[in-house]
Amino acid sequence: MSKNDADDLVNVLETAPVVPADVWRMLLTDLDDAGKEHITLLARKVAQSHFGTGVYVRALIEISSYCRNNCYYCGLRCSNSAASRYRLGKDDILESCRVGASLGFNTFVLQGGEDPVQSDEWLADVVSAIRAEHPGRAITLSVGERGTAAYEAFRRAGADRYLLRHETADEEHYSHLHPSSMSASGRQQCLYELKRLGYQVGSGMMVGSPGQQTAHLVEDLMFLDRLQPQMIGIGPFIPATGTPFAAEPHGSAGMTLLLISLLRIRFPSALIPATTALATLLPDGTIRGILAGANVVMPNITPAVYRNRYTIYDNKKSTGSESAEQLTLLSNDLAKIGYRIDFSRGDYETGEE
Ligand code: 5AD
Ligand code: SF4
Predict the structure, then answer these.
(1) pLDDT beyond 60 at 341
(2) 107 phi/psi in degrees, rounded to 5
């Protein structure tokens, strides 16, 4: 595809109320190296025009490695007896938030498997306690499919944002990745429910999951267009020991970067992280993600004794930032490309004057 053709397609992303499937497909499959580079630079410019050279940071606390689900791709699936399980108590979580606050973080992300012991009531109580101690900081939850009553209770308790990747928008591909107890439509229903309750909502998909076709990614992009999430997290699939997909090849980092750029152009004000999965595949994945249009990094501040046990996939990079030194390293890496950490809450803003 020539640069002019690529520009015509980009123009569709920038202006069309709905992007036709064919346009997404051509952008995913027909760009040569020069075309991809062109898209990367455009996406970087869009990100800079909305966020300058600031990168938001979120303090990630992995609250439980127990999960009642059995997703075929995930190392924390319930039937993986080799997984190392832990759950944080309320005091651990509150202490982690204090550490995070003292390091300058203004967003806490509580992420965990669907652990029945960390019940809806318990979690709502933890959120209330964090809210009371940190009135001005944002609380993000990422604890799976919990149902409307729970989502309402978390919201009342003070949660602002919720991350729940749709994983894949294609029902058949979804059933290739999950047992029949889970469905793409159920997941999407949760996302619409979360939006209705006033959460800033994050969704996203794995790139290169086993059996994934270009047409599936096109469906993902069209689903995101309908959902209009405030945050979009995508990362390459990485095989995990103890899962049915342990011997499958990992997803493409290059395709992940291209998708970040396309999403940035389509969703100029979205909060898009450079994910840990990308950093696991590429040693400079975080920086490459930022240069492709991502504007968020989520350093892991889970207490050191538990960190590295949240093994959703093999060789997961530990971007541990429980210490000021590690944040300084991130800061230095960003400075090398002319960026800096932005410690503000980084709420979603439409960017319209
Ligand atoms: N490779 C990459 N990402 C994974 N996730 C789960 N397992 C894997 C894997 N093997 C992602 C899913 C999920 C999030 C917790 O991590 O997208 O939403
Ligand atoms: Fe549980 Fe999430 Fe892993 Fe599925 S992907 S097994 S829901 S932690």
Answers:
(1) yes
(2) -135, 130
Ligand 2 pocket by C-beta < 6 Å: which residues? 67, 69, 71, 74, 76-77, 113-114, 144, 312
Beta-sheet strands, E only, within 230-269? 231-232, 235-236
* 305 found inside a domain: yes
Give CB contacts under 8 A, 24+ apart, made by 25-33: 25/214, 25/215, 25/218, 26/1, 27/258, 27/262, 28/214, 28/217, 28/218, 28/255, 28/258, 28/259, 28/262, 29/214, 30/1, 31/1, 31/6, 31/258, 32/1
Residue 83 C-beta-side C-alpha neighbours within 13 Å: 25
CATH number for the domain including 179? 3.20.20.70
Cα–Cα distances (Å) from 119 to 70, 78, 122, 156, 307, in that order, read 19, 17, 5, 16, 22
84 CA → ligand 1 middle, Å: 17
pTM, full prediction:
0.96
What tens digit of pLDDT does each residue of 171-225 get?
999 999 999 999 999 999 999 999 999 999 999 999 999 999 999 999 999 999 9
Pocket probe mutation, ligand 1, options 162, 167, 206, max atoms within 8 Å of Cβ: 206
Write out the residue range of the structural domain in which residue 37 sits: 3-342
* Beta carbons of 141 and 90 less than 8 angstroms apart: no
Kind and range of the H or E run holding 330: helix 324-336
Which residues surround ligand 1 with Cβ inside 6 Å? 73-74, 165, 167, 206, 235, 237-238, 240, 277, 312-313
* Residue 353, in any domain of the structure: no
Ligand 2: which atom is nearest the Cα of residue 68?
Answer: 1
Structure tokens at 234: 């995508």
Cα–ligand 1 centroid distance for 243 (angstroms): 12
Looking at the structure of the chain, the number of domains it has is 1
126 domain residue, yes or no: yes
Give the 3-state secondary structure of residue 154: helix
Residue whose CA is closest, atom 6 of ligand 2?
77
Q: Is residue 145 domain-resident?
A: yes
Residue bearing the CA closest to ligand 2, atom 2? 113
